[in-house]
């Protein structure tokens, strides 16, 4: 691993200032992706800006029908939160299925979203629930946040501070996970909201995406059977050592049915 400077600011403005002053620096949240990448010499940042010292970036609050989770809140806290379980049970269940205990205790929601791994779980919840990503300078709707493979709408020196979730009428998540990493080969988050039905798919393509045909079918009939005969085009899906594109397309339908069943429970 190449030598690097280590900075630990205690406030968001200091962190943003440090990032602007060090273009080759990287923000360190949980480090679940960044540190292994550095160990493999696939990334060699000149400095790490550790966000763990900023108390205001962590926490869970419920205000009416709006659930807000601080960017530095670990997955384990989301999974164990009675507030999350009461407001959006599917989100607590999703967080509890991320990685292993070490990952859940160190990994953070903000780090997961900023990294935008194509197989990560949180992007499916954020897009599926129509959440809003809050940064140090603006608010970004979920539909505008995810742009592609490891690519988001964040500027180079922009910092996620929290995520705001609207409380759905009901929601469910199901994933077919890799037995080794527990990443989603395919994960589907389904939510029925006051604005309509949203279906978000992770793990299947270069980035999380919505499935309009599934949304339309569930808007008319919110049951697993409504999506049983639907499918997504395999042409744009991932194919790798874990699964062919056609198999991932099949899994989208299977996981969508399971997600709807979970929502109905």
UniProtKB/TrEMBL annotation:
It comes from the Bacteria. The keyword Flavoprotein applies. Coiled coil: none annotated. SUPFAM superfamilies: CO dehydrogenase flavoprotein C-terminal domain-like, FAD-binding/transporter-associated domain-like. It holds the Pfam family FAD_binding_5. The keyword Oxidoreductase applies. Residues 1-170 form the FAD-binding PCMH-type domain. Its EC number is 1.2.7.4. Gene3D superfamilies: 3.30.465.10, CO dehydrogenase flavoprotein, C-terminal domain (3.30.390.50), Uridine Diphospho-n-acetylenolpyruvylglucosamine Reductase, domain 2 (3.30.43.10). SMART domains: CO_deh_flav_C. GO terms for molecular function: anaerobic carbon-monoxide dehydrogenase activity; FAD binding. Keywords: FAD, Flavoprotein, Oxidoreductase. PANTHER family: XANTHINE DEHYDROGENASE SUBUNIT C-RELATED. This is Carbon-monoxide dehydrogenase medium subunit. It comes from Prosthecomicrobium pneumaticum.
């Amino acid at each position: 691993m190449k030598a690097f400077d280590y900075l630990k600011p205690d406030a968001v403005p200091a962190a943003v200032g440090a990032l602007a002053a060090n273009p080759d620096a990287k923000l360190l949240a949980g480090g679940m992706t960044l540190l292994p990448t550095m160990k493999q010499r696939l990334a060699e940042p000149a400095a790490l800006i550790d966000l763990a010292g900023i108390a205001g970036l962590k926490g869970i609050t419920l205000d009416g029908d709006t659930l807000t989770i601080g960017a530095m809140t670990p997955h384990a806290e989301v999974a164990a939160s009675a507030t999350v379980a009461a407001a959006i049970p599917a989100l607590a269940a999703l967080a509890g299925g991320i990685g292993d205990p070490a990952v859940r205790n160190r990994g953070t929601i903000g780090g997961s979203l900023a990294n935008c791994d194509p197989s990560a779980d949180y992007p499916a919840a954020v897009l599926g629930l129509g959440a809003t990503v809050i940064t140090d300078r603006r608010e970004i709707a979920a539909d505008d946040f995810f742009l592609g493979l490891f690519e988001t709408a964040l500027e180079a020196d922009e910092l996620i501070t929290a995520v705001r979730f609207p409380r759905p009428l009901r929601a469910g998540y199901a994933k077919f996970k890799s037995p080794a990493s527990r990443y989603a080969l395919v994960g589907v988050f389904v939510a029925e909201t006051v604005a309509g039905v949203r279906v978000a798919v992770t793990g299947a393509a270069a980035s999380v995406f919505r499935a309009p045909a599934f949304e339309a079918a569930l808007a008319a009939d919110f049951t697993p059977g409504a999506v049983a005969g639907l499918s997504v085009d395999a042409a744009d899906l991932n194919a790798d050592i874990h699964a062919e594109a056609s198999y991932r397309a099949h899994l989208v339908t299977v996981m969508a049915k399971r997600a709807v069943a979970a929502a109905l429970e």
